[in-house]
TrEMBL record:
GO molecular function: polygalacturonate 4-alpha-galacturonosyltransferase activity
Segments of skewed composition (Basic and acidic residues): 108-120
Any Pfam family the entry gives: GAUT_1
CC terms in the record's Gene Ontology section: Golgi membrane
Lipid bilayer topology: Single-pass type II membrane protein
Any one biological process term the GO annotation gives: cell wall organization
Compartments in which it is found: Golgi apparatus membrane
Taxonomy, superkingdom: Eukaryota
Annotated region described as Disordered, given as residue ranges: 101-120
Protein name (database record): Hexosyltransferase
PANTHER family listed in its UniProt record: GALACTURONOSYLTRANSFERASE 4-RELATED, POLYGALACTURONATE 4-ALPHA-GALACTURONOSYLTRANSFERASE
Length: 661
């Protein structure tokens, strides 16, 4: 019922029967009510603001939620170092607040043992101790999820770290395997401090002193200081005697330290009296120029002697050829024939062509070929030699037949069709100009001057045995394919696979020899000549003679011999190339050569000392092209065993001619 305006209190009291409370009760309510309210509020908020006896901060609901919110640091990419820096241990606790009111989190150094149930129990105990039992399920779940997430990430990072360590260790092991521990002169390759870079410093010091002594001796003589000149000359002779032929300190005479000391004293005295920078520089420059001239002269002489050695025949091989020739012509005619002559024109067999005047070299080619053949009875070897060695070559293979293989020896002089009217080379060799070029060679007056001309006068460039390779269809008209071999090669594997190589319509199968900038056409041919420049590419890749598979059918179709004749006739004045059979071969078989895999034919054993051993041993054929042939004394020792293994040094003929390894 609404109270009407103007109604008095007294009327109301009378109407309801209401009696007002005493004044004392009203006052008590007004005073005690707020006190009770404040006391209850203080008691409820005290646990959130007060610290417990352990010093752990009890935070409010909002503070707990904020404490578990992901901070910026946790949003960064996780790494093992970052985890270890920010989280020392999996267990942690809240340590109270600083003066700014921010909650500080410290991480205890508890051990990580004990499993996740201990951590969960610690989290729950912290929550109960904080008095926040009404929020414990939510807070506990959040903290538990965070701990599990951290555990999982930490395990992943530790695993990644271990995998990276294992990879590094494995890489280090592989690198250590590649290190050659057998280093001469060092007991441990890792002990670099034991290396003495100046192991021959005494020898070098003596040589330096002798150079300066010669310089000051010349200056003293020109300055009329005869006493100093004589003293320097005497000390120089003493140092020369002490040095001798020593190349290392261990080879020096024990008097060397005394001579060094005496020479040093003399040089110090002379330097004080005669030193002039300009004069000393002039003397040293003159000595350098003189030494350079001597080196060039010695190089020319070395080239001359190597060319001379390359074209000579050792006494032992000459003896072998003479003895075999004598015994051959003592045989009755019926004993001079080889068996299985019916195989010579059978195109279904494997045929080889070998043109040589060296009995010992030819025997190595034949022995190595048949020794490595899988079916020797299917191999036929055609040898052609000159009149001088025809008897010796026949006698050797009559005494030493190649097992079940077929062999036949012919004399190049019996090829009556090979005459000057047909062959341009023979016609050119009969000319006076060619005889003068090959035999007189501009009459060199000194040994060094003749070195460059001597290689042009090598008999192999005059022999038709060297040019017979351009007449294979004429020599073997009934054959379809033939493998050409030089006499300075060694066969190390079965070669029958070459007959099944698809030449793709080409005539010649050969191994290419060119690199990035060498063994290309411009090295062998004169591209200043318009005939060469017009028809050939100077960067075309060169290839090697020595092991070549020839398709004689395609040869005849493309008239290879006619192409050779045309280029050989144009080179009568040697304007296209100077010498040899490789340049005309490059011209003749231009764009008609199929490249073979390099493992078929490895070259350079007659001049290159740095061929990889594995490359040699994996090759089907190794070639001693160059001056250092394996039957010469100048052969490279490390390559010679590949050749000598196919020689029977206990054979009576070889022993009698004193041929040895």
């Amino acid at each position: 019922m609404a109270l009407k305006r103007g109604t008095s209190t007294g009327a109301l009291k009378n109407r309801k029967g209401f009696r007002p409370p005493p004044v004392s009760v009203v006052l008590l309510l007004f005073v005690l009510g707020p006190l009770v309210f404040l006391s209850a509020r203080s008691r409820l908020s005290a646990p959130s603001a007060a610290s417990d006896q352990k010093g752990n901060l009890n935070v409010s609901n909002k503070q707990v939620i904020d404490a578990f919110s992901i901070d910026k640091q946790e949003l960064e990419p996780w790494t093992l170092d970052n985890f270890r820096r920010n989280h020392v241990s999996y267990s942690w606790k809240v340590d109270g607040s600083d003066s700014s009111g921010e909650t500080n989190v410290t991480f205890s150094e508890d051990k990580m043992e004990g499993g996740s149930h201990k951590k969960d129990k610690g989290i729950k105990d912290d929550l109960l101790a904080s008095g926040q039992s009404q929020l414990s399920p939510t807070i506990y779940a959040r903290r538990q999820l965070r701990e599990k997430l951290r555990e999982r990430r930490a395990a992943e990072l530790v695993q990644q770290d271990e995998e990276a360590t294992v990879k590094l260790e494995n890489a280090a092991i592989e690198r250590s395997k590649a290190v050659d521990s057998a280093v001469l002169g060092k007991y441990n390759i890792w002990r670099r401090e034991n290396e003495n870079e100046n192991s021959d410093s005494t020898v070098r010091l003596m040589r330096d002193q002798m150079i300066m002594a010669r310089v000051y001796s010349a200056i003293a003589k020109s300055s009329n200081k005869l006493a100093l000149h004589q003293e320097l000359s005497n000390r120089l002779k003493e140092s020369q005697r002490a040095l001798g032929e020593a190349n290392s300190d261990s080879d020096l005479h024990r008097s060397a330290p005394e001579k060094i000391k005496a020479m040093g004293q003399v040089l110090s005295k002379v330097r004080e009296e005669l030193y002039d920078c300009k004069v000393v520089t002039q003397k040293l420059r003159a000595m350098l120029q003189s030494a350079d001239e001597q080196v060039r002269s010695l190089k020319k002489q070395s080239t001359f002697l190597s060319q001379l050695a390359a074209k000579t025949i050792p006494n032992g091989i000459h003896c072998l050829s003479m003895r075999l020739t004598i015994d051959y012509y003592l045989l009755p005619p019926e004993k001079r024939r080889f068996p299985r002559s019916e195989n010579l024109e059978n195109p279904d067999l494997y045929h080889y062509a070998l043109f040589s005047d060296n009995v010992l070299a030819a025997s190595v080619v034949v022995n190595s070929t048949i020794s490595n053949a899988k079916e020797p009875e299917k191999h036929v070897l055609h040898l052609v030699t000159d009149k001088l060695n025809f008897g010796a070559m026949n006698m050797w293979f009559l005494l030493n037949p190649p097992g079940k293989a077929t062999i036949h020896v012919e004399n190049v002089d019996d090829f009556k069709w090979l005459n000057s009217s047909y062959c341009p080379v023979l016609r050119q060799l009969e000319s006076a100009a060619m005889k003068d070029y090959y035999f007189k060679a501009n009459h060199p007056t000194t040994l060094a001057a003749g070195s460059s001309n001597l290689k042009y006068r090598n008999p192999k460039y005059l022999s038709m045995l060297n040019h017979l390779r351009f007449y294979l269809p004429q020599v073997y008209p009934k054959l379809d394919k033939i493998l050409f071999l030089d006499d300075d090669i060694v066969v190390q594997k079965d070669l029958t696979g070459l007959w099944s190589v698809d030449l793709h319509g080409m005539v010649n199968g050969a191994v290419e020899t060119c690199g990035e900038s060498f063994h290309r056409f411009d090295k062998y041919l004169n591209f200043s000549n318009p005939h060469i420049a017009k028809n050939f590419d100077p960067n075309a890749c060169g290839w090697a003679y020595g092991m070549n598979i020839f398709d004689l059918k395609e040869w005849k179709v493309k008239d290879i011999t006619g192409i050779y004749h045309r280029w050989q006739s144009m080179n009568e004045d040697r304007e296209l190339w100077k010498l040899g059979t490789l340049p005309p071969g490059l011209l003749t078989f231009y764009q008609l050569t199929h490249p073979l895999d390099k493992s078929w034919h490895v070259l350079g054993l007659g001049y290159n000392p740095s061929i990889d051993r594995s490359e040699i041993e994996n090759a089907a054929v190794v070639h001693y092209n160059g001056n250092m042939k394996p039957w010469l004394e100048i052969a490279m020792t490390k390559y010679r065993p590949y050749w000598t293994k196919y020689i029977k040094y206990d054979h009576p003929y070889i022993k009698n001619c004193k041929l040895s390894e």
